[in-house]
Each structure stands twice: as C-alpha cells, then as structure tokens.
Specification:
Layout (H helix, E strand, L loop, with lengths): L14 H5 L4 H15 L2 H14 L4 H9 L3 H12 L28
C-alpha cells in the first residue's frame, strides 16, 4: 500500500487574515487551504483555476496570497478548466518519494 505524504496547510498572507484571524473571510481562506492540502498537484491546479474563473478582476493576486500558488500554476489551472480537451488526461503528478535524495552524513566506522 502506498503511503501518501500529507501536505501541510498553507497560511493565508492577505491583510484580512493578518488583522482579523477569526473573521468569516479568514475562515473561508483556511477552508480553501484545507481542501488544497488534500488534493494532488493536478486537482489543486484545477480547483484554484476554477476559483479564479468564478471571481472578478484582481482575483488572481488574491488567490496567490490565499493559496501560495504561483501565477503560472493558477493560469495553467484556468486553461485546463476552460479547455479540458487540450489538457492532457495524464498531467504531471509527482510520485511519492520523487525528487532529490536526502543527503546523508558519511561517517567512518573503525
């Protein structure tokens, strides 16, 4: 059975969450980030792309602050929502354990 690495929940950096951490807006931002923490890379992109398409002008910068995702990632998610046929069905999803191996301290045994 594969172990799925649990993603940490991003802390929103918008002014509302910083000044009023218990407001309804701050709770909504925490809820968005809790959902994002459970999604894989492709679905996270699509979810935030959908949110960006539903919002008005200026929502992209707001979503960058809320989610911590880059402008390019959100834009790619918007394109995948707008044109689902163009998006490859098997997008890039990283496998658990991928990436650089951890550096180990080498010690001599005598």
């Amino acid at each position: 059975m594969k172990k799925r690495r649990r993603s940490s929940v991003h802390a929103c950096t918008c002014a509302t969450c910083q000044h009023h951490p218990y407001s309804a807006v701050a709770e909504e931002h925490r809820a968005i980030n809790r959902v994002l923490a459970t999604l894989d890379e492709r679905n996270r992109r699509r979810f935030v792309g959908l949110l960006a398409l539903q919002e008005s002008q200026g929502s992209l910068q707001r979503l960058i602050e809320i989610t911590g995702l880059s402008r390019n990632t959100i834009g790619r998610g918007q394109e995948e929502i707008r044109h689902p046929r163009r998006a490859p069905s098997r997008g890039r999803i990283r496998q658990p354990g991928g990436g650089r191996h951890q550096a180990e301290k080498s010690t001599r045994r005598s």
